[in-house]
Amino acid sequence: MKYKLILSSLLFSASLCAAASDGMAFVADKKGLHLGGEQLRVQINGALLLDGDYREGLYENDNPLAEEPGFEHEIRRAELSFRFKFQSWAYAKYKTVYDDDRASLVTRDAFIGVKFFEGWKLQAGKMKQPFGLERSTSTRKLLMIERSMLSSSLSPKRSTGLKLAYDGDRLNWGLGAFERDVESSDKNIDSLSSRLTFNLLNEKRHHWHIGASYNIRNYNGSEHRIKTRAEVHTASKFLKTKKMAAEEHRVIGLETGFTYYGLLLQAEYMLSDISSNQDSLDYDIIDQEHQGYYFQAAYVFRKRGHRYKKSKLNSYNSYKRGKRELRNTKIASGSWELVARYSSLDAYDDVEDNGFVAATSSVGVNYYWGHYFRVMANVSETDVSEGKHAELPARAVSMRVQMQF
Hints:
With about 400 residues, the chain is mainly β.
């Protein structure tokens, strides 16, 4: 952990010193705040996400018999990021986030990168691993308030490492080796991740891509279990498997994303296999296999909808071109969007009577005002068909107010 903080501090300090000495001009637009010079360009972005959840049943403190529903609000995220571009061949990013769970500032991203040849780049530092469509999408750009329980449970998290990537017109590929600290152990998790996507259709208003991801994590005998809030962040992690001493965790993912004007369709499937450490006597859980999927559909009531860029869901902007007399300006106008998602996760072993099988159905409405403001509302219901909480109800209404620059 210490060397990660040192890397973050050095990256941030060196970049600011270089910016101060480059004689920069200040510009503000919808993409953020910019400092522009001959040798270095700096882009500053920030976001504030305020959430509130009204919960019933299992979502309310893991208590399906709770007489009174619960309501809880939180600062889901407050973030500030700095992107640095050194001439045309090198770049860096530093992002710090206020984490409400820890009530402290956390370094989310701190990496440097170089570009070489056409479309190739190499990054080193703390970053997202190349895996999955939903995991690769920023929280600020998600169409539902939370990621599906499939992605949050099985896909790898941010880690420190080295990544090689290629971004082309039709093909996008990434491969990285990473290491992540385990807070409750003196052991680290070594990880190798790769993601490959291909654009079958890539036009201005139409897009269709397919992709596959692979991740292998070496837990070195560290404790592992699946725990999920079932897509409501203020709820407890009431869906869980028993603890095990894990050795290797392998995940295969398949994905597709399609847009046609205001329509968006997105789906993923993951298959997970976890091998246990046979030398450990502390746990009686042996090898496990999990699988799941989600399907998501959205429709923006405008001719221009969402777009995928480099196989990631890009942020939606409700700005529109003005009429003839205002052709060179942009007018902020509101946009409404309807969203629905169905996600399922099978993490149940009937032999060991371990885990759960659950499905969450969610519908939502989003309101966009330009690039800077969004209001989201979701209604979610989780059905548990196997495991400890089988057949018990879980319902929630979630809200988010999102501001960014």
